[in-house]
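Chapter review: from sequence to fold.
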Amino acid sequence: MSSIHDKDREKQALNFIEEVTSNAAEVQLRVLSSILERNAHTEYLNRHGLHGRTDRKSFKECLPVITYEDLEPEIQRIANGDTSPILSALPISEFLTSSGTSAGQRKLMPTISEELERRCLLYSLLMPVMNQYLSDLDKGKGMYLFFVKSEAKTPGGLLTRPVLTSYYKSRYFIDRPYDPYNVYTSPNETVLCSDAHQSMYCQLLCGLVQKSEVLRMGAVFASGFLRAIRFLEQHWEEFCEDIKRGELNDCITDSAARAAVMQILARPNPELADAIGRECAKDSWRGIITRLWPNTKYIDVIVTGTMAQYIPTLDYYSGGLPLVCTMYASSECYFGLNLNPLCPPSQVSYTLLPNMAYFEFLPVHNNKQEEDLYRSGVISKTTSPKIKEDDELVELVDVEMGKEYELVITTYAGIYFFIPFM
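The token string follows.
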């Protein structure tokens, strides 16, 4: 049974969502004022004529709408070790690498340490929303496949890494307080294992050992979740042998991960190994997820955009479990969440939380012939031909149903550009 404290925390989270979205115009104005006040004397804002002014009218009149490429010289200076207040009055703590590229290189998104708190705030809202649709999610565990990726350093010594690697290696993840709605089958040590093969092996094995406790499972992207299924197809016999003997395969050489898994493996369990083996040895793997993890209520994985192609395969393996897309985020900014998480993937929409950043919207004009030329490289422009230079930006509260926009963000870390999601 959930404690009174858990219910109070859930109520507070839902009230917070209601409050900030109901007062979006006021919240957005406060966010912009806060960003401009703290960064009032940065080089970038002064160069464009703000000179300490923090009102929205001056901001809109002075700052141009730009792309990442326009801001790249400033970003490169920071990467090379310039610590002067170029974009942000607060120190840049690290660079988050984007999945997109600029001239063949991954984009570097400057961030400040307090952004982790905002990301964690968004994470804290996900389960209170989900609890409105499914009950008893605190009665078991989540089998989530989390992975860290490689890190590098800029010439100036700042870390560059994906946003999720930054989060998993932070105290907010490693030292997170106990929450019955966020208990995972994967020990931290297996998530933080830098060897992708060993990390996958350990996390899947832990999920199999605790299979009766799994109520939900997932990964970040559908493609990653299906890689785990393929890995299971290739290694299920080894998993069964480990469980039968109560000993971890010698291929796992990461000492921290090995010690953590051995605490879960604990003792020989031939009955569990045989039950898993019987399912995996069948000719068809249709519904293998619900056959191995029968208490699973949904799969938490991104299946929108380019990931939609994997929906039929996920349905095949899961037996038609709900595919839930919980949140909308990127290395540039965390944006919002899905308030109707059990909707079909084709109907997913996200509610932007107005406290995360200052959001504006550029109207999109669909000229298919011109857009095709742009995509094929015949037309070379900094921005998409969908965007017209004389278009006025639309406020978050003024977007209109049925119209298409590109998102323009202004973040606490001093990012001022639009993100072309084409």
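Two observations follow directly from the output. DSSP finds 16 helices and 15 strands in the chain. Residues 123-146+184-351 form one domain.
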